[in-house]
C-alpha cells in the first residue's frame, strides 16, 4: 500500500457570473462580494480555454430527472441571450457518477453542465473525476454549492424569470507573457499517458525554447509498511527499501513490476536532463519508445535502448546517469537523488490527481487529447505563436510529418509522385503492347481467312 502527500495547488476554476436577470445578479453579487460564483471544474470533458459561454440555464423537464442519472427528455433550447445557442443544464449531485450526468446532458444538446452539491458547505475539497468512461464527453461541467444551486433553481421556477436566467462562464488560463510553462505529471507505465504522449510528441516538438518551457515529472509513492521498518524492505515495486515506489503496471498478472516503471522513469529523466536545451530529442525518444515498447511485453531496458539508438541517444551515458543517481550499488535499499527531486517537486506542486498537466502554474482540467491540451496551452499566451495559429488552422499534422528516422513530408510526396509516374508508364506500356498484339492477331486471322479462301478456290477448280 502506498500513500502520496498532497497539498492544495492552484486548481483550474472557471469564472461564473450571472448574465441575467438583474435581480439574480445582484443577489449573487452580494452573496459573493462582487466576485464570481465559486465552482470546481471537472477533470474530464474539453473546457474551451480562452473562451466564454453565455447561455440560458435550464432544468430537466421532469423533477424525477433532476439528478440526470437516466436518459433525459428532450428540451427545446430556446431564448438564448446571445447569437450562439449555448444552453446550460443544472443538475443535482447524487445517485450516479458525475460522468453519467454530463453524458446524459450532452446527449440532449447541452453546451455545459452545472452540478449543484447535495450538502451544504464549501466545494473546495471536491474534484469531479473521470470514472474511466468519459472519453466521449466533449462539454465542460462544473460543481457549484448547494446554496448557489438552490438560488438559481428558485429563479428558474419563477414564471416571471424562467426564460431570463442566464450565466456567463469564462474558461481562463493565466497568460502573463509569451512563454508558456507546462509540466506533465505521470508514471511511465500509465496507459493513458503512453497514448497521449505518443500522439502529442509531433506537435510538442514544434514549440521552441523561447515560447514553451516543458518539464516532465514522475509521480513517486512510498510504501507505508516499509516505512514502519525504517525503509529496509525488499519490495518488488520499490527502490530505497520502499521510499520510491510505482504501481505494478500489469497488476501482478504479468512479468512487469513497479521497478520496471521506476527504471524507465529514471531513463526518461536522464534523457531530459542530458537534452535540456534541445527537448526535441526527449520527444523523439518518447515517440519511439511508446511505438516500439508500449506493450507490456516490450516494456524493457533492451527495447528502451533500441529506441535510444533509433534517435541517436548515447545509451551508455544514460545508463551512467541512472546508476549515479543511486547513493550505493544496491539499488534495492539505496537513496536516489533524481527520485528525491521528484518527490519534493510533487509536494510543492500539490496536484490532487495524476496524470496531470500544469500550465502556467494552473492545473489543466479536461481530456488528455492533443486538441484539448493545445487549446489550453495556446490560451496561456498573451500573443499566440505561429504554431498555435497553424495548428488550429489545420496546417500542422496530427501525426508526425517528420519521423525520428528523418523521413520528411517532401520525401513522402516525392515517393508517391514517382509511384504514380511508374503506374502511368506501366499502363502506357501495357496499352502499346495490347495494340501490337491486337494488330498481330488481326493479321493472323486475316491471313488464315485468305489461306482458307485460296484453298477452297483451288479445291473448287479441281472438282470442275
TrEMBL record:
GO cellular component, one term: membrane
Pfam family, one: VSR_TRX
TM ranges: 412-433
Record's keyword terms, sorted: Calcium, EGF-like domain, Glycoprotein, Membrane, Repeat, Signal, Transmembrane, Transmembrane helix
Gene3D superfamilies xref list: 3.50.30.30
Bilayer disposition of the protein: Single-pass membrane protein; Single-pass type I membrane protein
Keyword Transcription regulation: no
Residues in Vacuolar sorting receptor thioredoxin-like domain copies: 180-378
Principal location class: membrane
Compartmental location: Endomembrane system; Membrane
PANTHER family linked to this entry: PROTEASE-ASSOCIATED DOMAIN-CONTAINING PROTEIN (PTHR22702), PROTEASE-ASSOCIATED DOMAIN-CONTAINING PROTEIN 1 (PTHR22702:SF1)
Native source organism of the sequence: Blepharisma stoltei
Domain PA: 66-151
Name the UniProt record assigns to this protein: PA domain-containing protein
Family annotation (InterPro entries): PA_dom_sf, PA_domain, VSR_TRX
Amino acid at each position: 500500500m502506498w500513500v502520496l502527500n498532497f497539498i492544495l495547488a492552484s486548481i483550474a476554476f472557471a469564472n461564473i457570473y450571472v448574465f441575467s436577470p438583474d435581480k439574480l445578479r445582484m443577489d449573487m453579487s452580494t452573496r459573493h462580494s462582487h466576485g464570481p460564483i465559486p465552482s470546481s471544474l471537472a477533470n474530464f470533458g474539453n473546457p474551451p480555454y480562452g473562451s466564454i459561454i453565455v447561455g440560458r440555464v435550464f432544468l430537466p423537464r421532469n423533477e424525477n430527472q433532476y439528478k440526470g442519472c437516466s436518459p433525459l427528455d428532450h428540451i427545446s433550447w430556446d431564448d438564448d441571450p446571445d447569437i450562439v445557442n449555448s444552453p446550460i443544464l443544472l443538475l443535482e449531485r447524487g445517485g450516479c457518477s458525475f460522468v453519467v450526468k454530463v453524458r446524459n446532458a450532452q446527449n440532449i444538446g447541452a453546451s455545459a453542465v452545472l452540478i449543484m452539491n447535495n450538502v451544504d458547505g464549501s466545494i473546495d475539497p471536491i474534484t469531479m473525476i473521470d470514472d474511466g468512461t468519459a472519453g466521449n464527453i466533449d462539454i465542460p461541467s462544473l460543481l457549484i454549492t448547494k446554496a448557489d444551486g438552490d438560488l438559481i433553481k428558485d429563479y428558474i421556477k419563477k414564471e416571471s424569470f424562467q426564460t431570463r436566467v442566464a450565466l456567463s462562464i469564462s474558461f481562463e488560463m493565466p497568460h502573463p507573457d509569451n512563454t508558456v510553462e507546462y509540466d506533465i505529471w505521470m508514471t511511465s507505465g500509465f496507459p493513458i499517458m503512453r497514448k497521449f504522449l505518443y500522439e502529442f510528441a509531433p506537435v510538442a516538438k514544434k514549440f521552441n525554447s523561447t515560447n514553451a518551457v516543458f518539464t516532465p515529472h514522475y509521480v513517486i509513492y512510498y510504501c507505508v509498511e516499509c516505512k514502519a521498518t525504517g525503509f529496509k524492505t525488499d519490495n518488488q515495486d520499490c527502490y530505497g527499501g520502499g521510499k520510491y515506489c510505482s504501481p505494478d503496471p500489469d497488476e501482478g498478472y504479468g512479468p512487469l513490476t513497479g521497478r520496471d516503471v521506476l527504471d524507465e522513469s529514471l531513463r526518461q529523466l536522464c534523457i531530459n536532463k542530458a537534452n535540456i536545451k534541445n527537448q526535441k530529442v526527449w520527444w523523439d525518444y518518447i515517440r519511439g519508445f511508446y511505438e516500439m515498447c508500449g506493450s507490456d511485453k516490450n516494456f524493457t531496458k533492451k527495447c528502451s535502448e533500441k529506441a535510444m539508438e533509433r534517435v541517436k541517444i548515447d545509451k551508455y551515458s544514460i545508463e551512467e546517469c541512472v546508476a549515479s543517481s543511486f547513493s550505493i550499488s544496491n539499488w534495492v535499499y539505496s537513496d536516489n537523488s533524481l527520485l528525491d527531486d521528484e518527490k519534493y517537486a510533487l509536494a510543492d506542486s500539490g496536484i490532487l490527481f495524476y496524470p496531470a498537466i500544469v500550465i502556467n502554474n494552473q492545473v489543466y482540467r479536461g481530456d488528455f487529447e492533443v486538441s484539448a491540451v493545445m487549446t489550453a496551452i495556446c490560451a496561456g499566451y498573451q500573443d499566440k505563436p505561429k504554431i498555435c495559429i497553424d495548428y488550429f488552422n489545420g496546417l500542422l499534422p496530427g501525426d508526425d510529418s517528420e519521423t525520428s528516422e528523418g523521413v520528411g513530408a517532401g520525401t513522402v510526396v516525392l515517393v508517391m509522385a514517382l509511384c504514380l509516374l511508374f503506374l502511368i508508364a506501366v499502363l502506357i506500356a501495357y496499352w502499346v503492347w495490347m495494340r501490337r498484339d491486337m494488330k498481330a492477331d488481326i493479321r493472323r486471322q486475316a491471313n488464315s481467312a485468305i489461306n482458307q479462301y485460296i484453298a477452297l478456290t483451288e479445291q473448287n477448280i479441281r472438282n470442275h
